[in-house]
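Repro case for the chain-ordering regression, as requested:
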Amino acid sequence: MITERLKRLARLTRPRATPGQALAGILCLLVGFAVVAQVGSSTGETRFATARQDELVGVLDDQNTRLDRLHRDVDDLSRTKTSLEKDGRGDAALNEARRRADTYGILAGTRPASGPGITLSITDPQHKVTADLLLNTLQELRDAGAEVVQVGGNRVVVNSYFLDGPGGVSLDGHTLAVPYRFLAIGDPRTLTTALNIPGGVRDSLDRVGSSVSVTRHDQLTISATR
Amino acid sequence: MIAVIGLAAGVVLGLILHPDVPLWLQPYLPIAIVAALDALFGALRARLEGTFDEKVFAVSFVSNTVIAAVIVLLGDLIGVGSQLSTAVVVVLGIRIFANVAAIRRKLFHA
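-- result from build under test --
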């Protein structure tokens, strides 16, 4: 059976010197040559050599954006450097350090902060608001650029957690009173919009019978600290 | 057999000569190669089915490669070059697979 097939294959591939066969041979030679040429030219070169115009423009754009950003960084840093060099007594250094300590303090939650922001009140008539929902609310606020957040009387910091418990939801071990009150510093318009996204925080809280009210403030002070 | 020898000779020639693909040909050669492969597999299939004809093969080979390259060239001119070359590769790839499947059925009855 197999030998028969092999024979058939041999019969098919037996050389027959006709002009047509020669032509087929030449065409095959061309293909082999072209394949090798192409393989040779596409290996060892960067992707830029064969990239199309729009791809190259995209790459260039990326590089330019990056360059701009780095230039800005350089400017910032050299400004800091000049101001540090200029004063011998270390005033600028002190101010710089203070400024940083403030920033880090606010980020770490050890310092009070104030600025424009919103207060958010979430009722829970059916006792169905879970830690999950509150966490989603917090994440939505953070995504929308909330820099400092306080829930109830507790400052939310980087390792804060919500926990479902028998007495309701707790934040970092402190049971939260209903209605849940969020204070968030950030652009009030952006924060409000983020909460009202269809299918977002407000919708999912509505679904468990909770009502959400948002108040915008030009000046909001968050005094809870760690 | 001559075809196989030709293919091997082409590969050897390419390895020896180390040809550089001219810049104007660079976007079109890969597409042309895929088209040529399609023609080759088509020819092999026709041979196995006993319907092979040298004239048909030569004409289909040349027209396949030229048309494929021209389509991409046209695409480049009207600004959809990369999309069109993808389209050509996909279509030819499907044809190659179909041809190879037919060859496999003929050779192994499976």
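Ordering looks correct now. The longest helix of chain B spans residues 81-108.
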